[in-house]
Sequence to fold (113 residues):
Amino acid sequence: MSSSLNHCIKFELDIKDKNVVFKDYFYKSIKLQKHKIYEAELIQPACPYCGSLALLHNGHLVTNIRYLTANASLPVIIRLAKQRVKCRDCERWSMAQSELVNKYCSISNASKL
Fold:
């Protein structure tokens, strides 16, 4: 997808994290209710332990995040694929993290507020 789509979705959802990259969106019926689903990837540019850029990518952990929306009749879910990486310098494993959602959580921080 284009970077303009990514920018438009970030503007619509008021997401400022530069490591979240939106790829697509679609509508899906879940439990007889229409939901808007956004697909995104959370990238990790550097090792959080040593700051190295030499990372070995090892797949993604996909999390469905419920997100705050002005229209309660159309819930929003962000299907976020978090990168898992191993640092080639310090040999430690890590997963990409964002201010959008806490680690191992499926409710956005905006919704919690």
Q: What stands out?
A: The radius of gyration is 15 Å.
